[in-house]
Amino acid sequence: MSRTADPGNPSPSFDGTVREFTCAEVWGGNRFVSRPVHLPGIDGYLWSHPCVGGRGGDVHYLSICGSGLLSRFCLADVAGHGESVAAVSGELHRLLRRYMNFPDQRRVLRALNRKLEAGEVARTMTTAAAVTYYPPRGYLSVSYAGHPPGWLYEAGSRQWQRLLIPHPATPASVDLPLAASSDTRFNKLRRRVRVGDRLLLVTDGVLEAPGPDGAFFGDTRVETVLHTHHRDPIEVIVRALVAAVVAHTGRPDLPHDDVTALLVEFVPGPRGLGILHALRNRLRLRRPPHPTD
pLDDT tens-digit profile of 182-216? Predict the structure, then answer.
């Protein structure tokens, strides 16, 4: 297990290696992370703290497609630690890479669910939230696999709301955690966002952080932090949320579970026509290195 850090005095420890294959990416898990992240049309702040007790493994992934126009990020919470988490994390990473240029993130969830059910990967219960963002049109698409729904902030109304996916009258096997059923179908919520809107995703380590009396931190305390700090920069909000969780538990080391929060703000995307921007990026990826590079 990678080293942990004191939540009251976090310092960046993830190098955020960027690889040029088809996408640029930041991914990892089971290590302490406190750092800004940037994708086309998105500024974000990621905070993740692994527990010492080995009760779960949080995985994060942020990437852009080959054109540089499609952004995707994913949070997953894997039951267990060690080899099982590493196996699921590796497969999730592989599938996200494989389907990065596809606009529908449900492909990733369906493929991983099949592999977990078939025993191709350690069959470990996993929740996940997968998000795709297309900056030229401001289209946001969200899918959940048993994961806590996120919160969306609308800058125009200055209001936070829970980003729930309405379920019509369908069979029960919808949006279940990965490895729960081979018949699970995943829905998606598609909506348009504007510059200044924000999206918060957390794992159960935030919501189920226990107080001395056993009471969970819960949705209400998350929303109190969001409403109190809605005018603040995203890093300030994330740190305020972490501080509130620490104060609630009374344990700066957060031994109960992995704790991860990702807050993004939608900002102006690439300038000019999307197709021209995509073409420039494709050509740049194919350009042979200059002797002086």
Answer: 889 999 999 999 999 999 999 999 999 999 999 99
Pairing of strands 42-49, 56-64: unpaired
One-letter identity of residue 40: P
Determine the Cα–Cα distance for residues 98 and 27; give it in Å rounded to an integer. Answer: 14
Among the residues of the chain, which ranges form H helices? 83-98, 106-118, 204-207, 218-228, 234-249, 274-286
Cα dihedral 33, 35, 38, 41, rounded to 10, equals 100
User: Which pLDDT band, with edges at 50, 70 and 90, does 2 fall under?
Assistant: very low
Looking at residue 237, what DSSP letter applies?
H
The structural domains of the chain, with segments of one domain joined by +, span: 25-283
pLDDT at residue 13, rounded to an integer: 30
CATH topology of domain 25-283: Phosphatase 2c; domain 1 (3.60.40)
pTM given for the model: 0.82
The Cα–Cα gap between 74 and 203 comes to 11
